[in-house]
Amino acid sequence: MIIKKIIHCFFLLLLFCSCSGNRTENGETRPEINPDFLSTVKTVKATLDTRKETLSLSGKVEYDPDRVIHFFPLISGVVDKVYFSMGDKVAKGQTLMDIRSADLSALQNELVSLQAEIRVVERELKTAREMFADDMVSERELMEAESKLKQTQASLARVQSDMQLFGSNKGGTIFSLKAPASGYVVSKNVASGSTVSSGDEALFTIADLSSVWVMANVYAGNLQFVREGMAVHFTTLSYPGEIFEAKIDRLSQVFDPEDKVLKARIVMPNKELRLKPEMPVVINLQNEADEQAVAIPSDALVFDDNRYFVIIKNGEEDFQIKEVGLLGHNEKTSYVRSGISEGDEVVVSGQLLIYLALNGK
User: Fold this and answer.
1) Closest CA to 195 of 106, 108, 107, 97
2) Can you give the residue ranges of every domain in the chain?
3) Residues above pLDDT 90, as percent of the chain
4) Which of 61, 220, 262, 355 is close enough to 279 for a disulfide, judged by CB 3.0 to 4.6 Å?
């Protein structure tokens, strides 16, 4: 702390001569600026420019809900083994888990019974056709035999479809449940030994992450600056210094009841899987207003006591503090609502030291 004060005093000594000063019209003494320091002061003129403001929005990466499969239990049973964990890659048809299920055992028995029944019905139909050719049975009896075969085949097809949906028999009462699509496990709510039943929450959620959504939070005060189709760029702490270019694909028309924001959607290709669900991002966009304002470099501003100030150069050794009201800003430029005018010379180097000295701080 002592060192900081010494350095501060040293700079002030460089700036001003303590033994003399200039008197203003009001009789106040204004410190005299050291000519050596004066030669280093740089200024720029305030100009009129079209407002181009940078707006930053918070957001996060989410998986595309149209590329997600929620795997719900369709039967009851006890989980024997789970083969995948959160974040694992899954290929369509791979076994997600094994389950012991009396429901599937009954379905398997029905399948075997129907297969046997079809063989019997096929023989009966063959016999009925031969007898019909010899006028030993009526056409009605032949049609009944054909109808019986079709009904049995339909029942078998239904059971086979259910078996494909529910799982394949590994022997005994153990069945394997297969992944319905390829992707990555983004949610898992099942463990070996747990009991599951129809109507439970999704056991697995599998997402195709080759394309993801970046969802930006748009507050009511920023809504006028955001529109569909506008170019944006976003950054994330995971990749410092890297900027991702994108466009707003869709702007929701309904405020999120929990976050009290509108959601702006950005669709991003993600072939290299660099963007992960729930990854926080900062989305930046530029708004070009249909009006001009007095513009100065943002670096010229001095922030003190929750207010903004600039140093104006009126003459060779005449500097003045002006409080300014701001309309907005971007990374390089600030737009002034009040306090200075077009053409004013604004100090852009050493302004903080001049401000401190003029304020006697």
Assistant:
1) 97
2) 2-52+290-358, 56-66+208-288, 68-96+178-207, 102-172
3) 37
4) 61
**Count of residues in the chain:** 361
Please provide the CATH number assigned to the domain covering 56-66+208-288: 2.40.30.170
pTM metric for this prediction? 0.56
Determine the CATH number of domain 68-96+178-207. Answer: 2.40.50.100
Neighbours of 69 (CB within 10 A): 18
**Per-residue three-class SS string for the chain:** CHHHHHHHHHHHHHHEEEEEEEECCCCCEEEEECHHHHCCCCEEECEEEEEEEEEEEEEEEEECHHHEEEECCCCCEEEEEECCCCCCEECCCCEEEEEECHHHHHHHHHHHHHHHHHHHHHHHHHHHHHHHHCCCCCHHHHHHHHHHHHHHHHHHHHHHHHHHHHCEEEECCEEEEECCCCEEEEEECCCCCCEECCCCCCCEEEECCCEEEEEEEECHHHHHHCCCCCEEEEECCCCCCCCEEEECCEECCCCCCCCCCEEEEEEEECCCCCCCCCCEEEEEEEEEEEEEEEEEEHHHCEEECCEEEEEEEEECCEEEEEEEEEEEECCCEEEEEECCCCCCEEECCCHHHHHHHHCCC
Distance CA 191, CA 285 (A): 44
pLDDT, tens only, 194-208: 898 877 888 999 999
Q: Read off the pLDDT of residues 138-191 as tens digits, 9 standing for 90 and up.
A: 888 889 989 998 998 898 887 777 666 556 666 667 878 888 889 999 999 999
C-alpha span between 275 and 296 (Å, rounded): 37
Backbone angle region of 183, left / alpha / beta, with phi > 0 → left and psi within -120 to 50 → alpha: left
